[in-house]
Amino acid sequence: MIMDNSAIKGAKSELRYLDDVMDRSGFIRWQWEYKRATYDCKIREGSDTYYLRINTRAVEGKLEDPHAVLAIEDAYIGKAVFPHGVDYNAPIPDRVLQTAQGKLDQLKSVLV
Questions:
Q1: Domain positions in the chain
Q2: 13 burial via Cβ count (<10 Å: 0-12, 13-18, 19+)
Q3: Contacts of 88 (CB under 8 A, 6+ apart)
Q4: What pLDDT is recorded for position 37?
Q5: How confident is the model at residue 5 (pLDDT cuts 50, 70, 90)?
Q6: Per-residue pLDDT reduced to its tens digit, 8-67
Q7: What is the Cα–Cα distance from 59 to 42, expressed in whole angstroms?
Q8: On the chain, which terminus has fewer CB atoms closer than 10 Å, C or N?
Q9: How far apart are CA 12 and CA 71, in angstroms?
Q10: Is residue 57 within 8 Å of residue 11, measured between CB atoms?
Q11: What b/e readout covers 35-66, taking b as 16+ CB neighbours within 10 angstroms?
Q12: pLDDT reported for residue 83
């Protein structure tokens, strides 16, 4: 599910600063390559696990450079399913959505 009301989409930041901000907000940069990176935040609800993911793309430089500038793209959320990964079409409980929106609002306050 894409988080349509994410006000951080389009924000730009240097990689070093973005890594720091994301880390303090509970996100980890997992998937990355020279021009793209995905930050994940794990949200647990009972026995289920959900991932709030934020895609970014380098608009200046490459990700191996801490001064590379990244633009934030879509934020989306899905339910972890074994053994296939993340189901983005699974229903997301309201409490998890509120937690995810709180994380996005927290990022908005320092990035936008």
A1: 12-111
A2: buried
A3: 1, 76, 77, 78
A4: 94
A5: low
A6: 999 999 999 999 999 999 999 988 888 999 999 999 999 999 999 999 999 999 888 999
A7: 27
A8: C
A9: 4
A10: no
A11: eebbbbbebeeeeebbbbbbbbebeebebeee
A12: 84
How far are the Cα atoms of 66, 109, 111 from residue 11, in angstroms, in the given order? Answer: 17, 11, 7
Query: Phi and psi (nearest 5°) for 100?
Result: -60, -45
Place of tokens 């021009």: 35
The per-residue pLDDT for 56 is 96
**Partners of 13 in the beta sheet?**
70
CATH 3.40.50.1820 applies to domain 12-111: no
Q: What is the DSSP letter of 13?
A: E
